[in-house]
Amino acid sequence: MEKKFKRTLVTTALPYANGPVHIGHLAGVYVPADIYTRYLRLKGEEVIMIGGSDEHGVPITIKARKEGVTPQDIVDRYHKIIKDSFAEFGISFDIYSRTSSKIHYETASDFFRKLYDKGEFVEKVSQQYYDEEAQQFLADRYITGTCPHCHNERAYGDQCEACGTSLNATDLINPKSAISGSQPVLRETKHWYLPLDKWEPYLRQWILEGHKEWRPNVYGQCKSWIDMGLQPRAVSRDLDWGVPVPVEGADGKVLYVWFDAPIGYISNTKELLPDSWEKWWKDPETKMIHFIGKDNIVFHCIVFPAMLKAEGSYNLPENVPANEFLNLEGDKISTSRNWAVWLHEYLVDFPGKQDVLRYVLTANAPETKDNDFTWRDFQARNNNELVAILGNFINRSVVLTHKYFEGKVPAAGMLTDYDRETLAEFANVKATVENLLENYRFRDAQKEAMNLARIGNKYLADTEPWKLAKTDMERVATILNLALQISANLAIAFEPFLPFSAAKLRNMLSMGEFSWEQLGRTDLLAAGTQLAAAELLFEKIEDATIEAQLQKLEDTKKANQLAEHKANPIRENIEFDDFTKLDIRVGKVLECTKVPKADKLLQFRIDDGLGGRTIVSGIAKHYAPEELVGKNVCFIANLAPRKLRGIESQGMILSAEDADGRLVVITPADEVKPGSEVK
Q1: For residue 389, what pLDDT band results from cuts at 50, 70 and 90?
Q2: CA torsion 665→666→669→671, rounded to 10°?
Q3: C-alpha distances in Å from residue 642, one per residue of 68, 125, 369, 471
Q4: Which of 71, 128, 475, 598 is deepest in the core (most CB within 10 A)?
Q5: Rounded to an integer, what distance in angstroms lies between the CA atom of residue 527 and that of residue 85?
């Protein structure tokens, strides 16, 4: 039997304050969270939605150094942009705060100290690269050098993207700091680790047995991590920007951002409700829901729950309805390449059209798989659905009432069989939409709400009250009464999805107090109620407007190509004889599996036309194994074998790397026989 809760705590992933918010963030986290929270408020339930900016970490310090400003300057700038954009877009946070606040520093520090005093951390000393010029230790991604395996000169400290080999920073030949360009030196440093392996049995039971109702993408990712075996994770970093580690001997060390950031949910709740915050975090009758994107699943389903469990007094999340990624015009959204639709720019380019974007992002929500946003689809959904279906029905209902009844809701007369059939069609709308929302299926819930508008549109088209007005005004009164009751239902049904339009509609209909419980009723508007003047809920978006947005993206693409060419010049010429030494062939992928305890490696079994071979490739972050089975791939057949994680790799699969670091496996355009040579 499903547990009943007294209240709901909704948290939303904290956007990183080194850039604005884009449509991928909105579709993945903030629009679904807002829909859910507005729905619960409409039901009269006790609910709060907590948000805030994530303001610590190495990328912010690097951006500050490049711009010649302080990290605080960076986060102040973007926190304001993000907060203001959310407010204008209608994301109805009860609080939107930040992790650089005093209360957050105190809360995070106290949380760490409690775990430290309980002996929940493991202390380790290790050698790590230090940039003497920048005077800071370096994360692996901020160290580059020559790969010892394939001699790629742009390998990172954790992996060579060219050959896919997992590396330690100390493996690199001629390592350089990505911050200053100088050669780093090794220094000993001490850090504290959260032993996730200690909590593995609990997490296995809690997630894999106790939460099988979670979305398949969330459950599957958690299962994969747990099955590979959880490892201790550092909770501190050598940095001067962040929450200082509150123990002796920790000078120059701060809490690692992944440990610090989720505690922001707690500190922001304390800031909002200083006297009653604990009931939202520690009372077992509170349900906690984390809304996040798929890149944060591990942190919210495994790491943060382990932190809360180690502390001992907090609730764990009841559900984590993480979305997949939203692409833009067929390409992955990338902040570094400016390939995005930024919320603050959208609000300028499309004033008053917050609900259009909310509608389109929900209609294309990447709930269980990646989805795509295109400007043509945005235009089509606005013109063909919001304008032609929802807006058209409301406008006709209100305009006809003003024309024939001086804008007053007419009393209904005797109902016909067709009237009763129409009423029956939306009798279950409340139960249907409610069930979908309770199960975090926001895309389908919005579709059901729009179906109610379709019912109304069809009803008016079939009954044609403008023709009956010549002979039967009593019948016209009944038709328009029913149409206006459907309109009032639409105001309730769309309140969680399209809050600006729903408010405008309620004003037109002179609706007073209303609640979710009234959805589906046919007596929402009393006869004689004076309607306000009709106004359009939505307006058509013209081709020129869309062309301007597409041109903006095209300009971005050209600028990226130019920048990539400058940053990635053609290497020195080689002799033709050197090229002919490479034996590049086509093989069919027979099997593909993840390499245990190596989150970047995939193990392939290839039909090479010569009896088969095994190849290990570092593309696990770019492909799920099942995506590649059955594909033809190009590989180097005469590369000397080498062992990776104990597996002998007999070649190298060829991939192309785009400007964002995404790897795409090279495949022949047509089907060819395994073993065919590439010439």
Answers
A1: very high
A2: -80
A3: 45, 31, 35, 89
A4: 71
A5: 41
Pairing of strands 602-607, 46-53: unpaired
Helices within 90-153 (DSSP H only): 102-117
Q: Is 213 exposed, middle or buried (0-12, 13-18, 19+ CB in 10 A)?
A: exposed
What's the pLDDT tens digit per position in 65-104?
889 999 999 999 999 999 999 999 999 999 999 999 999 9
Q: What is the pLDDT of residues 414-467, one digit of tens each?
A: 999 999 999 999 889 999 999 999 999 999 999 999 999 999 999 999 999 999
SS3 content of the chain, % helix, strand, coil (to 5): 45, 20, 35
Q: 652's torsion region: left (phi>0), alpha (psi -120 to 50) or beta? A: beta
Q: What domains are defined for the chain?
A: 7-119+258-332 (3.40.50.620), 122-192 (2.170.220.10), 374-518 (1.10.730.10), 576-665 (2.40.50.140)
- Whole-angstrom distance, CA of residue 147 vs CA of residue 157: 9
DSSP 570-600: PPPP--HHHHHT--EEEEEEEEEEEPTT-TT
Whole-angstrom CA distances from 114 to 106, 109, 117, 269, 641 are 12, 9, 5, 19, 50
| Token code pair at residue 463 | 């009954």
CB-based contact 280:137 (threshold 8 Å): no
Taking only the tens place, the pLDDT of each residue in 160-192 is 877 767 677 888 999 999 888 899 999 999 999
Single-letter code of the amino acid located at 408: K
